[in-house]
Amino acid sequence: MNNALGLLKQRRFLPLFVTQFLGAFNDNLFKHAMVLFATYQLFKDPASEQNFNALATGLAILPFVLLSALSGQLADTHDKARIIRIVKTAEIGIMLYGAAGMLIARTGYVTTGVVMMLSAVVMLGVHSTFFGPIKYAILPQHLEDHQVLGGTGLIEAATYLSVLTGTIVAGWISVEWAAGLVVVVAIIGWFTGRLVPPAPRSGPELVINFNPFTSSWHLIAATMHIRRLFLAIVAISFFWTIGSVLIVIFPVLVKNVLTADQQVASLTIAIFSIGVAIGSVIINALLKGQISARYSPASVIAMALCVLAFAFEAKAWVPAPDGTLYGVIDFATHPQSLLLLATLALIAIFGGMFVVPLYAFLTTTVTKDQTARTVAANNVVNCASMTIGAVSVILLTKAGLGPTDMLLIVAAMCLGSAWLAWRLHKACDDGCPA
């Protein structure tokens, strides 16, 4: 990992790292500030809160399903650094619009404000769709082959640490401060994005297919027929289906099961983000620069056991007195909190250990002129799966299932991810990087 950290001193990596960090921080600051605002101030019952969160999650990832194919084609045909500059310019306008929606909802025009916030989430999804393939596909162009796994681990760690900081800040500042901060961070990201070195196309120029449906189908068909890529993408997608369920239910679980305030909700999601970053570092050290799925099955089985334990711990939780919520101090000194938070951290650590090698696998087992399209195909399938996860939460909520019941479903889904990762490892015994 020390060798990987050395990349932070180099112009070919640092501006991308910082730009990615700021973009993910801003995206999560806005989304979490919006979700906490809706959960704790705009809505008053668990079902409405959970449905709003599911809708926001679904809208955020819908652009990935529709536009990832186009984004992958553009990234493999044009200079990736130029696309980054265009995307970061658009982010400033999106954040101005979303911030206005927050302030409008805060002043009492709830419907108008909610519509503006949710439409800003869609636009942020478009922004992330066009940036997503680049942050991984640019690494094989700027780094040596033996540095790609370390660079991928750093990008993943930066992503989750930015989720951490964005989540913490969202829980501790007012809506008004959040509205101003997202605009400021977008402007800073615009400057750092301009420092990313050029990354022109590596292969022949493509004929761009602008039809989102046929381009997505052709992209997936061109990638998923390769067995090792099929297994890697499906395993990652299964994992993010699990992730989408957790994202939706967590604020509601904290408020209505753990009976804690929005600062505690922010704290728990922050701990989860720290855990994923730690898992990214651990798996890089275990694999010593090699790209292999050999630890992924055991990692996600361990994650399933921890999710199961977390569900039972939540069911046994002693709630706050009626009409009150635990603050951070009261929550931290609760006799059950230490075990619960430790279990949450382990869920995240094992999750990071599972998914990071699979992302590195996608970018190193194809030629450099195909990496963006491979990542884009992965994004399409991932986000379709996450949309299914978000819709499933809405349907399960209507069926009367609460957040702790959904944790049991998540634990069962982890076993499916373990089976897929095991199949991938076996498929790569002959001919894949080990």
Record keyword descriptors for this entry.
434 residues; Growth Hormone, Chain: A; globular; membrane; 79% helix; MFS; mainly alpha; 16 helices
Give the CATH architecture.
Up-down Bundle
Number of strands: 0
Helix content: over 70%
Sheet of most strands = none
Q: Domains counted in the coordinates: how many? A: 1
Count of alpha/pi helices: 16
CATH class: Mainly Alpha
Cα-atom radius of gyration? 21 Å
Q: Based on CA inertia axes, which overall geometry fits?
A: globular
What does the oligomeric state look like here? single chain
Content-based structural category: mainly alpha
> What is CATH's topology name?
Growth Hormone, Chain: A
| First-last Cα distance | 18 Å
β-strand percent reads under 5%
CATH homologous superfamily name? MFS general substrate transporter like domains
How would you describe the overall organization of this protein?
The protein is mainly alpha-helical and 434 residues long. It has one domain: Growth Hormone, Chain: A. It contains 16 helices and no strands. Helix 2 packs parallel to helix 7 and helix 10 runs parallel beside helix 15. It is globular. It is found in: Cell membrane. Its main location: membrane. This is MFS transporter. It is a multi-pass membrane protein. Keywords: Cell membrane, Membrane, Transmembrane, Transmembrane helix, Transport.
